[in-house]
Write a structure and sequence with these properties.
CATH superfamily of the largest domain in chain B: Cupredoxins -  blue copper proteins
Oligomer: heterodimer
CATH architecture of the largest domain in chain B: Sandwich
Helix content of chain A: 40-55%
Largest sheet of chain B: 5 strands, mixed
Shape of chain A: rod-shaped
Largest sheet of chain A: 5 strands, antiparallel
Number of helices of chain A: 16
Radius of gyration of chain A: 53 Å
Structural class of chain A: alpha+beta
CATH topology of the largest domain in chain B: Immunoglobulin-like
Number of strands of chain B: 9
Strand content of chain A: 5-15%
Number of helices of chain B: 1
Largest interface: A-B, 28 and 25 residues
Shape of chain B: elongated
Helix content of chain B: 10-25%
Number of domains of chain A: 3
Distance between the termini of chain A: 22 Å
CATH superfamily of the largest domain in chain A: Histidine kinase-like ATPase, C-terminal domain
CATH topology of the largest domain in chain A: Heat Shock Protein 90
Number of domains of chain B: 2
Strand order of the largest sheet of chain A: 4-3-7-6-5
Radius of gyration of chain B: 25 Å
Structural class of chain B: alpha+beta
Amino acid sequence: MRRSPSAEVGAASATQRTAARGRSGIGRLVPRLPILGDLRLGRRLGWVIPVLIVLVAAIVGYNARAIAQQRGSALIVNTAARQRALVERYTKDVLLAVDGFQADPEDSAEAVRQPVDVLLDGGSVRAPQGDGSRVEIPPARDWRIRRKLEQDRHLIDELIRTGDRLLDGGRADPSYAADVTRLRVLSAQLSSVSNDAVREITQQTEASISRLVRIEIALGLLGVLAALALGLLLRRAGAEQAAQFRSLVNNSSDLITVLAPDGTIAYQSPSVQRLLGRRPADLAGTALSDLVHPDDRHDVNISLTKLAEAPEATADFGCRLQHLDGSWRHVESICTNLTDDPRVNGLVLNIRDVTEQAALRQSISDLLHNLARRSQGLVDRQLELIDELERNEVDPDRLQELFRMDHLATRMRRNVENLIVLSGVDQRRRWSESVPLRDVVEAAVAEVEDYSRVQVAGIHDLTLAGQAASDVAHLLAELVENATSFSSPTTMVKVSGGPTGNGYVLEIEDHGIGMSDADLDEANRRLAAPLAADNIAVSRMMGFHVVGRLAARHGIRVQLRHRWFGGVAALVLLPAALLGSAREHPAMAPPVPAGVMASPEPFLPDSTTASGWQPRAHLPLRPHAAPAPNRGGDTDAAAEAGEPVE
Amino acid sequence: MAWTRAKRRWAWALALVLAALAIAVPLTVARRDEPTPSGTPVNVLLEDFKVRPDAAVVPAGTVSLRLLGHGPTAHELIVVRTDRAPDKLPLQRDGLTVNEEAPGVELVDETEGLLDIDDRQTLTLDLAAGNYVLYCNLEGHYLGGMNAALTVR
């Protein structure tokens, strides 16, 4: 027995959505898989990325050093060049002073010493841009430069000594001419030495800068290699991941299908070969519905259409798909709408083969149904026997006992019928002619043990379609029995009715202790979506499952509700399609005044209605015009009794 | 299969590194050739501010002046044939450098560029018998004492 296709499309909660992503999104599945590729990638990136970072840092560092060096050397060259001018000024000052002109050779001597001292020992000099700021110069380190600068200093000392001698002696001194020549020669030598030092400094700076450039080129090459290695690694890791994902998909027993927005198959995982005997390439571009069993196609289309309108939503459905050999495979599908994901752009279906489960479920249902059918036959025979005895019994006490037996047997029969309903076999009796609604309600009440506590009031003068009559009676009986068993024996249960816009509502109210909110919600859920008998959850609230199934057959809606003054009200909405009126205008028919249930006679004045439909139960003190009909699916017995059978 | 592919990739990477080295090494380790001197060798030391040949008299013929810069300043060396005293060469107008074009002074050869600390250069000269002066003609160097006599017999 297959499960009826049911779709639960809706705004999935955040957790459901996350789960759905992990479950069926192809594009999202890849980065989530903790597969081997990830680990290897991590290990390799572990060294490639630091190497890359170190290289970049080294290049930046060397650049900064080269720039600093260039700036520093420019300053040093400038300082060295200035010295030449200072030497010339000093020489001129000395000669002017000796000739008696205004000059300050001592000041010039101080100035001429300063640059070489700074270059040799380090210190601050005026910035070349002449804005009065001072710049620090480090002491020269290279020995060649130091030797040249030391020579420079030595010559300056000699220059100043010669100058001092000239200043002291003046023109009158006999060595005047020689000292002047000496001064000029020294000045020329200093100029040459300074030039030489400047040249050396410039050369060395250029050499070190070109060294830096070479190192940078080498580092850049290494950086390019590291980047290439990184790219290769990433590409390989990606390829590995893709291969692993492909093999996961290929070897999975589940199908992964991506449906394009137009309903055709955009991607089909290769596992379809195993499940349906078809090749993925043959399926691409075909419509999924071509594979679906014609009976399921409508429901599947509805589910998918609804899902397609809700991005990110998830839906489940079951259906049958055709194998290439023509057989049908039962499948369950979880689908997720990933049309918003550009990597997928479609509905992702995760399809699982449940043919074996379906077969198992079918055999359990068959077993249940079979057992129930046998029991039903026996109970029916028992009822007939009791009926016989009742008819012939004159002793009121014994008759009372027989009535109790009759009731118990009736309840047993309902239990058996419940099993048949839950087994899912739709094998019920259908009455061709419509039946008064009031009769149906009263028949249902009569099936309940505590019928005396039930008050039927204000049921309109309507008829109920024949094919629904026995199911509605069964349904009402379950609800009424539930109401009587879960309320105090001293309270009454009231059944009333009233027309609504789209049908007729029957209300069964009790004064019991009521239900907790959770229980009420659970019961309403069961009523809305009943499960099959082989489902474990059925053992709780079995009555509600039966009611739910019966209601589903005829499009009836049943709902439980708290009453504000305590107890529970069960609302049964009979759709207008099931209703008719003997007087042509069902909604206009006036309600019958409330009957008092304390006495049984008034609520069932006649056992047989004009339509020939007969109640399910034997009521006490009721004349038996005809044997009780078998209902709930025993067609053989029904056929014997000459009842209309569908 | 996967392994050989991986190996091939690493081989490529290695080849790239080697190619980079092959380009970089000749750039950094370029060396200059030094010609082997011939003729009568004379070692000449150039320093501030002296010219020191290790021989004052050499035989006529090919003479190799093996110059070694001793610094600290860079110097040049000019060889002139003259009968004047080494420190009495005619000067230019600035009074600081020698005038090689003056009468009585014949330019024989001069160094190519300057010799800095530890620089070497060899001047191979074909010298006839006569008096020669070796000097540095950078400003103030000659007058500072950078001259020496060389006699060829």
